[in-house]
Amino acid sequence: MAARAALEAAAVSRDVVLFQHDRSRFFRLVGLFCAGQGLFWAYLAHFAFTSLRPTPGPGPGPDDPLRPRDNKWRFGFTASCLTVGSLVVAAGWLLPLRSVRRVTLLRGGTEVAIGTHGPLGFGHRTLTVPLRDVSGRAHRTEVAAAIPIKVKGRPFFFLLDKGGQLSDPRLFDVTVGAFRKF
After folding, report:
1. CB 3.0-4.6 Å disulfide test: which of 22, 27, 95, 177 passes with 121?
2. What is the pTM of this model?
3. How far is CA 97 from the centre of its chain?
């Protein structure tokens, strides 16, 4: 049975779209939100750095416990704001790059084109890899929200949303969805 399925995959005479799920609008909105958050946190860091200067005054006292008396508070708060803003922008940059919008089995059945959204949800990217370098880490019926696909040489998983459409589930299972050891 496995040999027959492999022959069927190899006998593809034209490009076949195996999976399709276009969420461009959602990822553009997420990208705009993350960019806005990045600007907000950068402004807050700038405000903290310029406004939280220690005031020269009498020595330590309980008169205003929220007003910092040395630069440690100013530098710490500024660094915290920049860290949070950078993490939010990085998440908005990387999440669309790992969310798959289209998987196409190319003619001949030996290569797969994986289409993703661009950084911050703007644009599209396509990665063409040999089929032997693609491994489905879980069967599509076993996962709740997203099918993880591992590509050899790439650090993270590509995620196929379960809300997407599989045009040929059986062909998907024996090609992209099959588990392969790297």
Report:
1. 27
2. 0.79
3. 5
